[in-house]
């Protein structure tokens, strides 16, 4: 989008307009982060919105960034790509939202008009995609600037449960689009989901839309497997001893699974997935991979299988929105810990020790966000 020198900033008088500073979680290089004062974002491009964050969360991707695995994130960047907030300011070209609207922020910003967006591949938008908390400042702050606001925000219904809806920023559409849709889960299928973290559990929830006959959940953490059992898994496979493939082949009478969903992003979990596919099976990768994997084509070349990869497009958000609104999908069940936004340094420590802390999703609430603007 063309940048213009100055745009009319339709800011409403917020609760703390006396300062142009805010607090934000800033990446300072691998292993280093700070909760620190930072200039408040303003409308820069005419399609922008500035949103005052009320609820945000920490993603596994943020931990990858903290390890230095995501080189596009440079020191000084405010992290975070999931959140809900109140529209505080709008550029002159935004037509779908008003000051004071409570909105869900998509983790993917989409212009809606480039060739990629016209194909529905918003994740590869020419001037957007996954940029929040990556190449532009993100949502783990009191305020965030959202480019392409008309096509990247969703109006929340009155009384919406923010803990449930914030899961639609990223993990629910990611698990559903990259795992369930790309894996083409069908009624009667046998599905294996490797990884019972928040993404794997979200795949478990959304795979059930299609009535698979069996969902085998694989993880090394018995506590996470127990949660998977409560969320509808039909078999729990503890892979800590390295026998996951044998256990799954035994459970399926030697046939393997119709769909294997990779929800971790390391070579060993991808290897489990490629070793358990039935003839005609689909391997749907969700995990963020930082290392190469060995593809066993010598075993797979004649098996009629498909392997898919995808970055979430968030095209499924409107559909998931309806299911959450109707109570048919209850993603707030993934929330295990709650913090005030100002406690985000502690929240990172808790989320970073997920196994010990038994953490799935941590919710951060901006208690100091002040009253909603009428
Ligand atoms: Zn995320
Ligand atoms: Zn686009």
Brief overview, please?
The chain is an alpha/beta fold. It has helices at residues 60-66, 115-118, 162-165, 171-181, 198-207, 222-230, 244-251, 267-275, 297-300, 317-325, 344-352, 354-357, and strands at 21-27, 33-39, 49-57, 83-90, 102-105, 143-146, 153-155, 190-194, 214-219, 235-238, 257-262, 277-285, 306-308, 335-340, 361-365. The strands form three sheets. Strands 3, 4, 5, 6, 7, 14 and 15 form a seven-stranded mixed beta sheet that branches. A six-stranded parallel beta sheet has the order 10-9-8-11-12-13, sandwiched between helices. Strands 1-2 form a two-stranded antiparallel sheet.
Characterization of this structure:
The chain folds into 2 domains: 21-170 and 314-369, Quinone Oxidoreductase, Chain A, domain 1 (Alpha-Beta Complex); 173-308, NAD(P)-binding Rossmann-like Domain (Rossmann fold), CATH 3.40.50. It contains 12 helices and 15 strands. The protein is α/β, with parallel strands linked by helices and 374 residues long. Residues 1-15 and 370-374 have low confidence and may be disordered. A hairpin with a 5-residue loop joins strand 1 and strand 2. The longest helix has 11 residues, at 171-181.
Main attributes of the structure:
15 strands, Quinone Oxidoreductase, Chain A, domain 1, disordered N terminus, alpha/beta, 24% helix, binds zinc ion, Rossmann fold
């Amino acid at each position: 989008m063309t940048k213009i020198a100055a745009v009319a900033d339709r800011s409403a008088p917020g609760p703390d307009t006396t300062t142009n500073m805010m607090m934000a979680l800033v990446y300072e290089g691998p292993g280093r982060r700070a909760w620190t004062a930072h200039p408040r974002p303003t409308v820069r491009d005419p399609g922008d919105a500035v949103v005052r964050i009320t609820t945000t969360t920490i993603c596994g991707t943020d931990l990858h960034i903290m390890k230095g695995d995501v080189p596009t994130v440079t020191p000084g960047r405010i992290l975070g790509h999931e959140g809900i907030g109140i529209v505080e300011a709008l550029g002159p070209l935004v037509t779908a939202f008003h000051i004071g609207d409570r909105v869900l922020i998509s983790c993917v910003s989409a212009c809606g008009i480039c060739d990629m967006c016209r194909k529905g591949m918003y994740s590869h938008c020419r001037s957007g995609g996954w940029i929040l908390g990556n190449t532009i400042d993100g949502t783990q702050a009191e305020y965030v600037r959202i480019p392409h606001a008309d096509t990247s925000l969703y109006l929340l219904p009155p009384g919406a449960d923010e803990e449930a809806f914030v899961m639609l920023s990223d993990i629910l559409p990611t698990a559903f689009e990259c795992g369930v849709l790309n894996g083409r889960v069908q009624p009667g299928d046998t599905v294996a989901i490797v990884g019972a973290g928040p993404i794997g559990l979200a795949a478990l929830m959304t795979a059930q839309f299609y009535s698979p006959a069996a969902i085998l959940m694989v993880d090394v953490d018995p506590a996470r497997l127990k949660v998977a059992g409560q969320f509808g898994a039909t078999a729990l496979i503890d892979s800590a001893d390295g026998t996951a493939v044998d256990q799954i082949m035994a459970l399926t009478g030697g046939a393997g699974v119709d769909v294997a969903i990779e929800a971790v992003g390391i070579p060993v979990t991808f290897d489990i997935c490629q070793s358990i596919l039935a003839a005609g099976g689909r391997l749907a990768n969700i995990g963020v991979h930082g290392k190469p994997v060995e593809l066993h084509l010598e075993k797979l070349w004649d098996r009629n299988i498909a392997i898919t990869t995808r970055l979430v497009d968030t095209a499924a958000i409107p559909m998931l929105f309806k299911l959450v609104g109707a109570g048919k999908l209850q993603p707030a069940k993934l929330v295990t810990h709650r913090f005030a936004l100002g406690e985000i340094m502690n929240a990172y420590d808790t989320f970073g020790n997920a196994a010990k802390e038994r953490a799935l999703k941590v919710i951060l609430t901006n208690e100091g966000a002040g009253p909603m603007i009428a």
